[in-house]
Queue: 4 jobs
Job 1
Amino acid sequence: MKIDKPVNKPVIVALDFPDTASALSLINRLDPELCRLKVGKELFTRTGPDFVRNLIKRDFDVFLDLKFHDIPNTVAGAVAAAADLGVWMVNVHAGGGRTMLEAARNALSEDSGTLLIAVTVLTSMGDEDLSELNVSATSAEQVMTLATLSRDYGLDGVVCSARETPMLRQSLGEDFLLVTPGIRPAGDSADDQKRVLTPSEAVRDGSDFLVIGRPVTQAEDPSSKLQQIMAEINGKK
Ligand code: C5P
């Protein structure tokens, strides 16, 4: 799916909730004109596809963050199932390799409304963790290798840390989507994130979509927090 840039709705709110009720109490206060939503493994495993259908029925674009990683045939089936569910974005692990990436890509029709992106190296993994896996590249080198592979095999983009955004934007060009977590509006707590950027810094460095959880989900007024974030991105603050 081709996305016009800069994207008009760059914030993806991470629904890191353990059940439908707590997720819905936030969603009832959010406007699908202002943000998209990310459903990850915990919420999906607890609430299932019907919950995702409910979000889509409420006009939200849903990023199904299940990070598929399996043999090509299985991943292709899972990606096709996500597209049938009507999600706007789905992801796979680039470490599944060329055949898996191609199978995932081919599982989506040319005019599919679903974006396919990849995870490269998890940001929880450092150079020492890679070396223990017998990967001699640094994490930055491995991110570049896996992101390049993802682009070359037709994926729409990658999830990457804010730290990796400038190098990926520079080498992979403008058409490749960069989706970045670890975002904190100026003055907000970093929580357990080690390196954070503000929304406008992330966009300046080349991020297309910002995954933002607690700054919005824990805000007293999530909707006005989102409006503040959008104003900051648009240089109005
Ligand atoms: O609450 P917070 O804004 O830190 O949430 C960030 C979201 O992005 C969470 O859903 C987290 O799992 C996800 N994420 C991340 N870092 C990564 C990949 C995903 O924080 N490298």
Job 2
Amino acid sequence: MAVLIKNGIVVTAENEFKADVSIEGERIAAIGENLRASEGDEIIDAAGKYILPGGVDQHVHFSFTYKGSKVRGFETSNAAAVGGTTTLIEFVNQEKGKGLIETIEDYRKTDADGIAMVDYSFHSVMTDPREEVIEEIPKLAEAGYPTMKLFMAYKGMFFHADDDAILKALYKGKEAGVTIMVHAENAEMIDVATKRLIAEGKTGPYYHAISRPPVVEAEATRRAIYLAEMADAPLYVVHVTCKEALAEIRAAYNRGQKIFGETCAHYLVLDTEDLAKPNFEGAKYVCSPALRTEEHREALWEAVDRKWLNAISSDHCGFDFAEQKHMGFGEGNSFADIPNGAPSLQNRLNILWTYGVCEGKISRSRLVDLFATSPAKINGLDKKGQLAAGFDADIVIFDPDYEGTISVANNLEGVDYCPFEGFAQKGRPETVFLRGQKIVDDAKYIGHKGQGKLIAGKPYGSAYQW
Ligand code: URP
Ligand code: ZN
Ligand code: ZN
């Protein structure tokens, strides 16, 4: 049986138009006017609704650990589905003593396959830059994992990477079209500032932001750009949050370097002052880089609108507030002990629509590009992120008339809080298809565990092809 979605407004990264969409098996069969159904087909009337491609969230943590605390995993990936995201790409930190691919494969078999409720892929994170590991980087491309990240931040943690590792990764990645990504913050600057603050008794969550101001991000962004220039390799900067880092990326791009970047939903709507909330609630907003002020948010909205940044991810990290409090509160503890990260898997589209499209900051087409099309291209997912015949039938029927309030009460992330609690929400994903199968109906998840499948990325993603 096929599915015919009639009378909706199809939104692509380029334009929008009224059309029908037909699905056969796992793929989009046709998009056009007055498409005909065959007997037995399911027909959905989408009049008054927008038809969007299923989202591609290229920045998710389902296995991240911070000082012994571990995030929620793929068993909560139905939260992505109800948020209109049908493909997730998770960062897998290389385990000491193991290879890059071996780490991903071992983790995938036990923690993703048979569990994931949307499609998935992985980025490698190099933590152990031995010579043989550097030599393995080109093999990531053959294995279907053509992207690798290095953490410039987090001094003293096993996943911190120095310039030596980044430069070697850039040279090696280029040999096989592996896109190198960086978390750009200067670890030494943060470390010195953190120790000074703690010595002064400034230990609460708010000081997390004071310990890592924009200059920390700008310095590392610039340094990574110079490393990429030396290797003559493309570079992708994850979670860009401030105007200073944006300026570095723009300047490099204008010099002719292949430098690209993303931001995340929470950096577009949350504020440094959230870290000052009473009763230690500021801990809910401890993420790295830190939340910024209005002027930076305005710069980020302009950057995503003008294509100076080309994706908006979640950087989803599912730590409980109870755990954040346990780790960071009390005698001898500080903001530096609070597990970093924001649970935001479910609300990426809701935030972008309500605070981006409805407030006139981005067009619907721009949203589609940032939410689905560009992240698919960056990661070499050539059947994802677009509404066109032959692409995977990952489709969101979006109801623009819904009005509600974002709350942990309607959240499937499995975390005890939502950083967007109480935010007004306009519109919602009403029906979602994953490769032709309906997994969300009337805004409720109706799919099943293990329905997601591993998607291999192709090398030489869009950072190589500008
Ligand atoms: O605070 C964050 N972003 N936590 C997740 C790990 C990372 O740095 O991306
Ligand atoms: Zn990061
Ligand atoms: Zn992250």
Job 3
Amino acid sequence: MSRTVYVNGEYLPEEEAKVSIFDRSFLMADGVYEVTSVLGGKIIDFSGHIARLERSLGELDMQKPAAFDDLLEIHRELVRLNEIDEGMIYLQVSRGSAGDRDFVFPDPEKVKPTLVLFTQNKPGLADSPAAKTGLKVISIEDMRWARRDIKTVQLLYPSMGKMMAKKQGCDDAWLVEDGVVTEGTSNNAYIVKNGTIITRELSTHILHGITRAAVLRFAREAQMTVVERPFTIEEAQDADEAFITSASTFVLPVVEIDGAAIGTGAPGPMAARLREIYLEESRKAGV
Ligand code: PMP
């Protein structure tokens, strides 16, 4: 069955949805996006994702495509039309199409942003087998641009990183810059040592994960110790546990880095507990 997607004010079957070949997102990667998950038909961490979207737009001097309430309404309508119980909603905003190719930004009075939303139906999303088996990651150099705090659609290097991991029989890659881990290709990275959760501090070097913010809040509320600082691959290989967070995976354990087993080589208890708390609290707070 074809999905219903949203393009610039219209709900359309995916086959009929169109964006100009001159759209700046296509020509220049001049666009930002957000991904929210759906659990039990409810949207998770919506206000956090929209706040980050507004920040991304602001940093790039791009116009807001719609008001918060309208965006929530569009998300809800797509969940309803596509009968999503568990899955994802992708929202993409580009600087629009000026009808030609030019490095110079178009006049925002004349060219409106392009707004596209689509869903992915993922029954069983919260029941991922990876939560029980854990992920294997490789480390690669972080060769992305220097404003990773802006959630742009420039996903080529993360995509290449995932392919490098797959080629080595692994699930994902952790990115390393100046000898320390920044984050995963599409998630934030954590280790646990002697009961302390360690994750890279917020800066322009990493995306400010919405799941990260929620998980660290829940960890602190549960009296777990959190330290936000950089760590090396060697430190991670020597940790008791490792895990990742993102809107589409929630919390997933990492059991191997560059072939070295983490802790016992099985998913650790802190990651399991945080996943449980995150899922429980998110389901309660979904909108
Ligand atoms: N870092 C990167 C590079 C990402 O692509 C993502 C997922 N979009 C994250 C971290 C996690 O962010 P969030 O928890 O908001 O999904």
Job 4
Amino acid sequence: MRHRAQPLPHEAGLDAIRTFDVTDWGGPLSAGMRDDASNALESGKVLFFPHLSFALTDEEQAFLTPEVSNGKSKNVSLKPSGGMGGTSLAGQQAGALKAMMQRFAAAARDLVCDLIPSYTQALEAAQTSFRPVEIEGREASPIHDDTRLHVDAFPSRPMAGRRIMRVFSNINPHGKPRLWHVGEPFEAMAQRFLPQSREGSRLHAAILGLLGITKGTRTAYDSLMLGLHDGAKLDETYQRTSPQIAFPFPAGATWICYTDQVMHAALAGQFVLEQTFHLDVNAMVEPARAPLRVLESVRGHALI
Ligand code: SIN
Ligand code: FE
């Protein structure tokens, strides 16, 4: 079968990908599919849409080159407020690139709201990115190396428990898949790395906030999530031997997951569009599945 996950030596029966036969960003979807999608997404699976492609106009095809990056950032990023960064383009060309990314942002929102209508009010659009640089061979320090399995947690962006969901679409024009590894469930990973993770001090968090090093105040939850992120990335044995599958997301495919929950690594590929959403834990169908609630139940106290 074309889209079957390729087992790695330590696959251990992982059931990490749920496939949906959706061909249209605007739906409509069946009730059965919606239930399936919210259940799979919240339980930490990747929703995979092999036949949902994001079409570019002829003019936009010209953006499929690493030259659109400014060479300093690996991604072109667009804030919901309209600020664009990371590109070498200016003027009319920059405007056209922005329009493409805004169209993707709108399509991604339509898809998520169609799949899980109860998210609609709470779903907050964060940044959109275009990733025109080949992953393979890119230099990065271990902590910044996204070819290593990790959950997303960012030192400068405290989430205070709120979810990070990402929609990806592979727009590679040469048919090159984006190769991910998807790892073990969050609970298993947390059990391994939580003992070495720290909740951090309130004073330290307040100073980081005052100095503008963090956007808002880092909570105990954020410190623990950074501990899980760093702990996994820095553990060579874990990277090599923990349960994981390799999954090549084909060109022309789309996928969605909670990247603060799904252990993921991107090993190869070029040209993807990505939309980040944030969501309050209480807007989930089952908030108990949120990393915040899982970590709180292990620690035995509130973390935000
Ligand atoms: C990541 O979130 O770690 C990278 C995902 C990608 O660019 O495919
Ligand atoms: Fe990531």
